[in-house]
Amino acid sequence: MATIFIPQERVAGERRVAATPSSIGKLQRTGIDVAVQSGAGAHARIADDDYLAAGAQVAEASAMADAAVVARVAPPSLDEVAALAPGTILLCFVAPHRNPEVVGALAERGVTTLAMELVPRISRAQSIDALSSQANISGYRAVIAAAYELDKYFPLFMTAAGTIKPATLVVLGAGVAGLQAVATGRRLGAVVKVSDIREAAKQEVASLGGTFIDVPSDEDLTGEGGYAKEAGEDFLSRQRRILTEHLSTAHAAITTAQIPGRPAPLLLTTEMVEAMPPGGVVIDLAAADGGNCELTETTGVVEHHGIRILPGHELASAMPAEASAMYGNNIAAFVELFVTEGAITLDLDDEVVAGALLTHDGEVAHTRTAELLRGEGR
Ligand code: NAD
Questions:
Q1: What are phi and psi of 359, to 5 degrees?
Q2: Where is 343: in which H helix or E strand?
Q3: Distance CA 205, CA 140 (A)
Q4: Which residue has a Cα nearest atom 35 of ligand 1?
Q5: With a 6 A CB cut-off, is 377 part of the ligand 1 pocket?
Q6: Nearest CA to ligand 1 atom 1
Q7: Cα–Cα dist 103/79, whole Å
Q8: CA 225, CA 214: separation in Å to the nearest integer?
Q9: pTM, rounded to two decimals
Q10: 173 Cα–ligand 1 center, Å
């Protein structure tokens, strides 16, 4: 019988875990045995005893070498790659464009890596879509963080002592995180304005009560699979000019714009931040990919001209119990695809497996990443 091993996350700031007692039931229904590293759930408030009660074994890190499948949240370190047995199937986020060395080591080690961020955004794979499950949390949490940081009410208040105007929130990027930010911002009573480059985003924003900031373009920048194409410099500079006007009356900005596998587009220059009224807050969810804001630092808060800029790349980890519950379900749904009655059959022709396949059989299977590793493309 094959075993799936869930290691303790080692990356600083990573508080999630790739399985929870509820996802263990789902994993076990595929017939696979589950082993969880002792202490793996501590940040998500899941004790070893909770895993034992759910039917998992609790093991030491060395048990990873005996597992046919390993599921984790963050990419492994080079040492952790060396601890995997050749032929292991690894499920995790890899951020291949930021971690080429790890990808190379995984290929060399003979690990079959299924990268969670490469899972195709198709209906059949919705239950496996960890980018969405985690972005939903980040979008929600970003608004809560902005509301907390701001020394101003979000909603309109009409009282005998006077009327307080609602806060204005600008959301850049209306994907999963951005739309959740719009919905949460509206629920808290803010005026929400949104910019995106995909045509479809206009209607989605309007249906949530947001106002779309139109940047005229001759081209629909919707790319493959509903993702955004990389906008040209001409569009970006027009967008910056129009956004500056809106930012000059905004109290908070949440930036979520990403282009898969590439550095995040620069949407908020220093000059644009300076246009915001003092006391404002920027939460940059794209911080790990270079940030949408020129001033963002992944290491902490930056204060510039009375505006605080916060990195938001770890916001899903700030709600570790719920983020792990959803991520664990994404992992279990993926395992269901290739484990039946405890036996593993990985169908490389399956669209979901083929899309997520990053390394296999000693090679880097994902074309764009392979090009990056060869020093071609960018
Ligand atoms: P993402 O995290 O890749 O990017 C966030 C948003 O930033 C996107 O809406 C993108 O258009 C936008 N963006 C990029 N460059 C920009 C710029 N210069 N200015 C403003 N905005 C910019 O996106 P995501 O949340 O992963 O969602 C991408 C798409 O995938 C959406 O269309 C979403 O509806 C779709 N999706 C489909 C499924 C499914 O079918 N199962 C699941 C999830 C998401």
A1: -135, 145
A2: strand 343-344
A3: 15
A4: 226
A5: no
A6: 258
A7: 13
A8: 23
A9: 0.94
A10: 7
Is 132 among the residues known to form the active site? Answer: yes
CA 218/CA 55 separation, integer angstroms: 57
Which of 127, 138, 193, 198 should be mutated for ligand 1, with most atoms under 8 A from CB?
A: 198
214 by Cβ neighbours in 10 Å (0-12 / 13-18 / 19+) ranks as exposed
pLDDT digits (tens, 9 = 90+) for 90-109: 999 999 999 999 999 999 99
361 burial type by CB count under 10 A (0-12 exposed, 13-18 middle, 19+ buried): exposed
**Any ligand 1 atom below 6 A from CB of 138:** no
The H-or-E segment that residue 321 falls in is helix 320-338
The side-by-side arrangement of strands in the sheet containing 69-71 is: 57-59, 33-37, 3-6, 69-71, 89-92, 112-115, 357-360, 363-364
Q: Round to whole Å and give the CA distance between 217 and 238.
A: 9
- Give residue-wise pLDDT tens across range 275-291: 999 999 999 999 999 99
Catalytic residue among 28, 77, 121, 350: 121
How much distance in Å is there from the Cα of 223 to the middle of ligand 1?
10
Residue type, 95: A
Distance between CA atoms of 319 and 259, rounded to whole angstroms? 25
Residue 170 CA to residue 307 CA, distance in Å, equals 14
